[in-house]
Fold each of these.
Amino acid sequence: MPRVRIRFRKQGDARFISHLDLVRVMERAARRAGLPLRLSQGYNPRPKMAFASALALGTASDAEYLDLELVRPVPLEDVLGRLREQLPSGLRPSAAAWVPEQAPALMALVNAAEYEVEVEFSGPCPGRAELEQRLRDFVTRGGALDGELLALAEGRARLRLVLPASGGDRARPRRVAESLLSALGCGGRTAGVRRRELLRIEGGRRLVPWELVQGGRARG
């Protein structure tokens, strides 16, 4: 059966849709869109779909992924267009691609996530060079898989953090940011979190879910 991978954004008020409610919203939108969905067996058939990784409530994302199983192929542009018409504001499919039959499930594929985190400092901080060194030390000690200081302004900073996709507090960007603020010696709070991408890190390579799909894609 054909399987289509959909990349979508979760922004604005949609940040406050829980993962369980997101599943219901996507099921309802796919049905209303008239897509030829493959359904589960039993007394209560449901569309066969799978998400990559649950997103914490209140967190925005540029790159969430959903696999939908269909009973027959549909032009990818139609899949995107029909879903956009049915989804609420803040949930916007941005691309679609066919998935090879033997490709691993999304949850098995993704093992890391990249976040953009904005923090506000509550005390004096060292200069940029020292902050960057302390961030490297934090990563070396296992606080994150990778990290980068993207911007530094009066009393605030914007960071890129790569974290495991699962594993308790080590996978929670707000918790990691709290630990990082302590390590930086500044104190403060997390002002905002956005997931930029989901990743597969393997043998030193960083892959995104698109890199294991076939060439046919649609974007919008």
Note: The CA atoms of residues 120 and 209 lie 32 Å apart.
Amino acid sequence: MGSGHMLLTVLALVLLGFVLLTMNRSMVNTSEQNIGASVGLNAVSLAESFFESAQRLRFDEKDLTDPAVSNAGDLTPADLLGPDAGESQSNVAGLDDIDDFNGFNRDTTLKTVSDLTGMLFHIQARVCYVQPEQPWKDLTARTFNKRMDVTITSSLLPAGESLKFQHVFSHWRQFVDFTN
């Protein structure tokens, strides 16, 4: 083998190494993106199931005894939003109204088919009164609208990143006049 052939062989090996390195880097990036997408989808599922759990509950403790409550001043004061006496957030099935989720703070693990060890998520929830015109603004005054903020963090998310979800629940009073 002459020096020309030797040089072509070395160049071919360098080119092959470069191609393999590029393909490996591409596969690693794709794998990281797949993990990120999976974590994001699971976080969205967690938040959505949280909102659905709250949606099946009454709007307020007062609403349990008087479903036609028509005075917002009769609702739970903003500083008392949270589980009522005898209720515990460790037993979500025992909660009876939306604001019982205020202060919720728990770790949960979701097991997936591809990851049998599971993904660890930390969930925090906060409930406050809002106006429909300004749902981003917390109120201390009682209204017929409550916003639930759910924040989800995970070690699988980029450092310091958390996913925040919000949902506004409203209590609609329907008055029917049968005299007309």
Note: The chain has one domain: 3-170.
Amino acid sequence: MLWRGMVRVGKRKPGGSARVAASIGGPGTNEIHAHIRASSAPSSGSGPAAGRISVSSLKQPTMLRLMRRTSFDEMNCSVAQCLEVVGEWWTLLIVRDALFGVTRFDDFRARLGIARNVLTQRLEHLVAHDIMVKVPYQENPVRYDYRLTPKGRSLWQVVNAMRQWGDEWAAPDGPPVQAVHESCGKTTVIEPVCAECGERVRGQDLSPVDGPGAADGRSILPADLQHAH
């Protein structure tokens, strides 16, 4: 990632410190503003890093505003409700590995390179939302397998759609993993079809309309699409 930065240095007394206002950002990003105190006073270290630098504040205003939303729980949208459960970073990779048959905490951690505390939080979140269930496999000390529930296994369609998108748009050397249909033994891709007529469906073939969950003025569709059918 290419970053750019601007630094303004205030006046510094001999042997003292200078207050530095730094602004760093990347292409297409909001700038991050930092106040840094740089000192030329000797330290216990040696070499070119003998001076000291301390950051007194670091903020990205737009990011701080966006981070205020902590939940999609009140948003009347099935996509948002799905993200409420599996939208955090790492979560779908845990589900992916569980679909591969991984169940042990240490195996998830070794395969994903995820921090222990983060993995613990994600697994507890998935258990709380009935995506996974804890099954003890050892008593002293108690240790658990983390197994997908039927609700969790139904996420295979989400994971597979992401895999196929990645295969098409982000895998220049070819798919890292392919799916074999056990009935015919052929490598395949999953294509959506209409449950009513069996015809293959593309995005441009679908029209969004209000469903029963949009009653009482809770539609999330643009005004010109509401009650269109």
Note: Residues 21 and 133 are 50 Å apart (CA to CA).
